[in-house]
Amino acid sequence: MSNTRVLITGANTGIGFATAKRLVKSGADVILACRNLSKAAEAQAELIKLGGAGTVDVIELDLNSLASVKAAAELVKARYGSLDVLINNAGIFGEALHQTEEGYEQQFGVNYVAPFLLTQLLLPALQAAPAGRIIHLSSIMHWLGNIKPELFRQSSGSYRAVAAYGQSKLANLLFSHALARQLEGTTVTSNALHPGGVNSDIYRDLPKIQYAIMRPFLIPTSRPAELIEKMALSDEWAQKNGQYVSAHMPNWQSANAKNTQLADQLYQQSLEMVKAYL
Ligand SMILES: NC(=O)c1ccc[n+]([C@@H]2O[C@H](COP(=O)([O-])OP(=O)(O)OC[C@H]3O[C@@H](n4cnc5c(N)ncnc54)[C@H](OP(=O)(O)O)[C@@H]3O)[C@@H](O)[C@H]2O)c1
Fold first, then answer.
1. What is the per-residue pLDDT across 95-141, written as a single tens digit (0 to 9) for each?
2. Taking the domains of the chain in order of start, what are their residue ranges?
3. How big, in percent rounded to 5, are the helix, strand and coil portions of the chain?
4. Could you tell me which of 74, 157, 188, 237 has the fewest CB atoms within 10 Å of its CB?
5. Among 165, 203, 211, 244, which one carries the catalytic annotation?
6. For residue 36, which atom of ligand 1 is closest to its CA?
7. Whose CA is nearest to atom 25 of ligand 1?
8. 267 pLDDT band (50/70/90 cuts)?
């Protein structure tokens, strides 16, 4: 595998880092898009030691800021021109209510609005490649979410953290499906996955006792990384579009996730949300 250029967000740790390792070993040119440049440099150094045939680059991307997303996308387009694979991996799970720079409830903003914008801005670069693939990290937790526009900018009141995370992951899945329908018959595909219950830093905010109960059921980051690598590079996935797969648990989708009207509605609302940056 050579000259396949893959950008992966949040690649300095967890599922993103495990995936980057596999991509580097496969010989892909890998771009680590991370918010913390010193953590990214450590990851980059470790990845370079793997001795892959491709390059390992770092770009700064803070999904908490749509201005940062815009700057990162501009840099990618100017520096590389085309992109073969975009992996929207970075994400947060937070117990407390916070806002992004543009005032979105933080889980919705970081996990969904910013990756939506990044994808829109990088679509021309993906279309410039011989074949482009977009991969969205959703979650089985999408079952716990509903699309509630009145909560997109929640800044006060009682905060249901799990429902907010669920909403963001449902939005990832609806976006992947809406995009896949739009891209049907073109050179670019859009697919989503649930990585499984994975032992990573994402559970850092959970109460210690809750984490201790969950821990034995979590799978290593290498499991979803194997699936994501296949989705990114394999011939088997070259033609697949609009799929939702799972590295661990069943890939059942909620009724909301299968609702094409809801997906199209959210897509239009999202374009409106990011229009100042398009
Ligand atoms: N772990 C699971 O069981 C599980 C289950 C279902 C879905 N997922 C999904 O899988 C994806 C990866 O999660 P993970 O388990 O690997 O989590 P993780 O170990 O916490 O890694 C998350 C990555 O996202 C980055 N990130 C967080 N906020 C960011 C921001 N504002 N801008 C840019 N990057 C940011 C983190 O950077 P820092 O290192 O700087 O914090 C880190 O690199 C997420 O989308 C998550 O929702 C995970």
1. 899 999 999 999 999 999 999 999 999 999 999 999 999 999 999 99
2. 5-277
3. 50, 15, 35
4. 157
5. 165
6. 40
7. 10
8. very high
Q: Which atom of ligand 1 is nearest to the CA of 197?
A: 3
The two three-digit tokens of residue 116, written as one number? 């939506």
CA distances from 95 to 205, 208, 225 (A): 6, 13, 26
Q: Are 135 and 117 in contact (CB under 8 A)?
A: no
Specify the CATH number of the domain 5-277: 3.40.50.720
| Residue 201 beta carbon below 6 angstroms from any ligand 1 atom | yes
Asked if residue 12 lies in contact with residue 39, where contact means CB atoms within 8 angstroms, the answer is yes
* 213: number of Cβ within 10 Å: 11
Give yes or no for residue 1 having a pLDDT over 50: no
Q: Which atom of ligand 1 is nearest to the CA of 224?
A: 10
pTM: 0.98
CA distance 260 to 273: 20
Scored b (16 or more CB within 10 A) or e, 82-100 reads bbbbbbbbbbbbbeebeeb
Q: Could you confirm whether 159 is annotated as catalytic?
A: no
Residue labelled with tokens 């079952």: 143
Q: How far is the CA of 27 from the centre of ligand 1 (A)?
A: 24
